[in-house]
Amino acid sequence: MIHAEARAIHVFRERFGEPPFLRARAPGRVNLIGEHTDYNDGFVLPIAIDRAVWVAARPRPDRQAYLIAADFGEEAGFSLDGLRPGSLRGWAAYPAGVAWALERSGVHLPGLDAVISGDVPIASGLSSSAALEVAFAVAWLTLSGREMPRLELARLCQRAENEFVGVRCGIMDQMAALFGRRGHALLIDCRSLETRLIAIPEEVVVLVADSGVRRELAASGYNERRAQCEEAVRRLQRRYPGIRALRDVSPAQLEEARAELPELIYRRARHVVTENDRVLAAVAALERRDLLAFGEGLNASHESLRLDYEVSAPELDTLVEAARSVPGVYGARLTGAGFGGSILAVVQREAVQAASEAMARLYEARFGRRPALFAVAPDEGATVHLHAI
Ligand code: GLA
User: Does 161 share its domain with 21?
Assistant: First the structure.
């Protein structure tokens, strides 16, 4: 049994004197390519990973939620009556936001007692917050005896984060946590929300290096990038009235309009517009098992994020540089919003050791501490199990 799952069940039994009524699991994600494209109606290619948030829960006869975060020994409680955006802070805002969004969509919820445990590193760019949202969404929905299409659940969790927690995230992370499949990446068209599963070749390993850097300004930097993309669309609409999002603009169209955009806005748009093309090229490369081309796309994505979108950091660039210096590494790039967090490297199985050592060595030489290194495997989206042992 996975450690975090066992811990959630163990703490639940200890605190409530009986086994949980259910346990829900929702995975974190690593985005292979397609960064900062989701909120531009573009394409993304994440994998759900074999690290997850677990929630062990039972219903309550009243409308109280009582939550225990087993990994950091904290507790939180709130009433389902009178939940308002901004009324809760910290980790409890995510489950509360999900409850708020579920009730607003017409699902009447019971109160619950719940214990949370997980092995998705927090604030590392691996979407522990989306995993927390989705785990509570499927748990609460099951306790209320209702069903809902997963697409609707993804939208609902995004709404919880946008409107209740106050982070303007896109929909990639919630989609990955709900639709991920073992052995596959998930191509998402973030406009239509159509998904396609893309097999990941057996011989490659996805290696993650967490820099440990958490930037205070990440949320404001993220929102600023979103606003810059919106400004690009507004200006481009004068020339191309039919466009609704950067998704609708081709690299050639952007070049034609270059003189009409401030330089910074042009560069932000260039990242998004070229990144969308890179996602589709990366999918084609995976489908014909051309890992060299796939890796080159990853490398180009990182350079675009570093130079045009400016969401990298010296720590991330160092990890990418070290990974790329090792034979058998196809490509490496930052994953998630950036400003800190993690990188991923796509590596031949035999090169995992050498790549890990190279990253640890260069990182330690430059920053005096070691990154956290671990391989991840593409895994299933969220699941609920009734009557845990
Ligand atoms: C965060 C957001 C996602 C996405 C990425 C950047 O993970 O939650 O919606 O925008 O950043 O690609």
Answer: yes
